[in-house]
């Protein structure tokens, strides 16, 4: 439990579960949740490097805080977009938002 | 933890148990966040997962971040998602099961990513920094935010502000609904 | 015979002769055209001075021993140089005199003939253009230069035939002449290319001296025949002969200048010019002989039934050109050139006389002219008689002697048939010529001449116009009478002054030709001349032959058939198919393929976000792996 690889693999599993959800889910909100998972995995990675490798442990924490800020902004924007889309096509199913079909 | 208990229960075992609990929470939450078709379960799964990640942050030495994690993700983002669900998807609509090939394809792509990133993790020669400071205090974080990373800090604030305004405009104007008052 | 460079006088005279008509063309066409008198003066001066230069050169080189050559390199590439310049030797000097002489006389004559025509200045510009092209053609030192001016001559012919372009038949005739001569010129050009590829030398002297030794016999024959194609087109030989009678739609002086005396003789000139080259290939000369004979007989028969005076002379021109080719084909270099010379004089005279009648009576039908009193125009009538007699070969006029040389050249051939055909042609010539003369001299039902004359084509312009037109007639009539005596002198001049081999003298040949001419003339007397003659040829009692001759042996019909069935029916259809299916189809196919490819690619744009994500993530993962592992 005190090795870099352990944490990296935990983060990787978390990332892959998020990725799987992102690719699989048809609900846009589901995809947003999956993206949050992936962002968490990245933050976890930062903290792992911070703990085991970095010269100054404060820097990694700063990075994670930034990620959290970005994630909050992203969630706000994404949710508003989802609402806009829902008003337009009466659905949040991504497979029905196909206006860009070639 | 009393000395008596300490004779029977070794701290390492407690730590291990806590670690496994935290990792289990993370993975279980992640799976719940992804797999069930009901969107409310997914939100709860996300919250559970966030709890687990916060625990991992404690194991990695930063109680402050664990607190922030719970505060932002569970207190803000999950709540916002619940609001979005309430505003958009009628809960009683049956969602048709996923198209099978897409499921397999998603799994295959995730597996490929997993394998390739594992290889990257294993093959990279990680190097530990020669001199390492042990200053984990919040005070140091605050100093960094206001000195070295001040610009980034301001930019993040600005980004958040823009995101909030943008979210309002998008949700209000572009969704085909009524235009905000006072706009031509 | 190595050529020598010209001295200053020769150079400037030759360049003067080549340059003045061009100068005149530009001056008249672009500057003085609104002022008719000035235009005529410019043109006359610019055609008179070359005539003087030509006579001066001819007199100065009467005993020349080596050709004079002056060349500038126009372009050079791959060891082949295309040159421009001039070549002065007896043949080109003689031809230069003919061209400039007839050209000058015709320009003088046109002063009267074209008086009052609104396009007179333009007409003179075109005549100058023709004179320039023809003089440059005659003096050309290389085949490429000759070919360029050959085409320019064709262009000026087109312009002059169609000069009265408001007349539909005239513009049609101009087009016909242009297209049919072009058909032959295609062969000429191919011949030039064959020579260029295989010999790499287009200079006339080089061709004459080296072609026979440096080319294989097959190539030599092929190139000679291809060049002869151009000759066939330009000189209206069989099978491209029908454009010349149609070309009579142009003004009569033009017919005299281009379509009898000079331009159509350019084909004969070209064969004479390259005579040693043609001699290298007996097959080619054989073809020249055959084509000449066929043409002569065909067009003589056509002339027997024509009632349009210009048509008669047109057919006669074609047949006399065929006669020249017979002489050349039989190996008689001098025979062809001599007949060309005399023919230029008497045929120009014939046309110019006819022009006076046409101008006066506003008709082309010589029966009508005769009835209207053509006899009363003394000078043209006498000139016409002299020229007609010369054409039929009456002693002591020029035509007798030149025809005699051609016949004796034919008599040298092992096969006597050629001689008999030649004699037959001479008889036919005498028949149709005397037919016309008798009709003109002894008209039926004479009418007062005055009534008709006032409605003439150009109108009456009084005695001055008449004499402007009559003066060239007198000059040419004198020449026609005298050229016969100049034969031996010309022969020795053309042979570079060397003593001539004593040719076999065929005394019986003179007798035979006299008999044949007398027979033809006698037949004409019986049918047209004697008192109480019906003035109907024996042919009118044989409708089949009459129709055949009057319809030009259905040659035009044959062209039409070939055009419809071969060109339109076969080639045009194939090309149209190629156009529709291959070219259009190719472009359409390309467009359709582009559209299809776009459609195929658009399938990738499914509009499904997650498929894009699949690809993106996969690629990122693999790229990361690649950078780590490699």
Polypeptide structure, described:
The complex is a heterotrimer of chains A (102), B (184) and C (630). Chain A has a single domain (4-96), classed as Helix Hairpins. Chain A has helices at 4-24, 28-52, 57-89. Chain A has 102 residues and is mainly α. Helix content of chain A is 77%, strand content 0%. In chain A, α1 (4-24) packs antiparallel against α2 and α2 packs antiparallel against α3. Chain B is mainly alpha-helical and 184 residues long. Chain B folds into two domains: 1-94, Four Helix Bundle (Hemerythrin (Met), subunit A), CATH 1.20.120.1200; 137-184, no CATH class. Chain B has helices spanning 3-8, 11-34, 39-59, 63-87, 100-123, 138-146, 150-174. In chain B, α2 (11-34) runs antiparallel to α3 and α3 runs antiparallel to α4 (63-87). The longest helix of chain B is centred in the middle third of the chain and has 25 residues, at 63-87. Chain C is mainly alpha-helical and 630 residues long. The longest helix of chain C has 50 residues, at 555-604. Residues 449-459 of chain C have low confidence and may be disordered. The N and C termini of chain C lie far apart (83 Å). Chain C has a two-stranded antiparallel ribbon. Helix content of chain C is 75%, strand content 3%. The interface between A and B is large, with 70 and 89 residues.
The main sheet of chain A comes to: none
- The stretches of 5 or more residues of chain B where confidence is low (pLDDT under 50) are 178-184
- In CATH, the homologous superfamily of the largest domain in chain B goes by the name NADH-ubiquinone/plastoquinone oxidoreductase chain 6, subunit NuoJ
Radius of gyration of CA atoms of chain A, rounded to a whole number: 17 Å
Strand content bin of chain A: under 5%
Helix-residue proportion of chain B:
over 70%
The major beta sheet of chain B can be summarized as:
none
Which CATH first-tier class of chain A would you pick?
Mainly Alpha
First-to-last CA distance of chain A:
50 Å
Of all protein chain pairs, which has the greatest interface, and how many residues does each chain bring to it?
A-B, 70 and 89 residues
How far apart are the termini of chain B?
A: 67 Å
Total helical elements of chain A = 3
Helix content of chain A: over 70%
Count up the domains of chain A: 1
State the CATH topology of the largest domain in chain B: Four Helix Bundle (Hemerythrin (Met), subunit A)
